[in-house]
Amino acid sequence: QIQLVESGGGLVQPGGSLRLSCAASGFTLSNYAVYWFRQAPGKEREGISCMSSNDGSTYFEDSVKGRFTISRSNAKNAVYLQMNSLKPEDTAVYYCATDLMTATMTECMIAIKHNYGKSYWGKGTLVTVSS
Fold this sequence. Notes:
By secondary structure, this protein is mainly beta. The chain has one helix at about 105-115, and strands at about 5, 10, 20-25, 35-40, 45-50, 60, 70-75, 80-85, 90-100, 120, 125-130.
């Protein structure tokens, strides 16, 4: 079964940190580009970051750049979104996704900026940033 499962969400104070996990099964995650999206309450889905399948380089939208980072564990077949300096506007359901395709960093960037849909999604994990 091809599956993505996010975890690590929860309630955090402004300025705090969380690390989200995206665990894959049924395929080798490191072979493909991986994307992170989020959807805030009452808002449309927003692409925020991706990791290239070629060299592991990453791209971040301006809204999270400098605060979020991505890492990968090949042994655990998982990727992680480290979220620092969280703001109330970061409150959203966060999703990881892939289309089981390779992508360069440039292709990652284009997909995120255009909010392209992907073939495989996790169910999401809720992050709430509030005092």
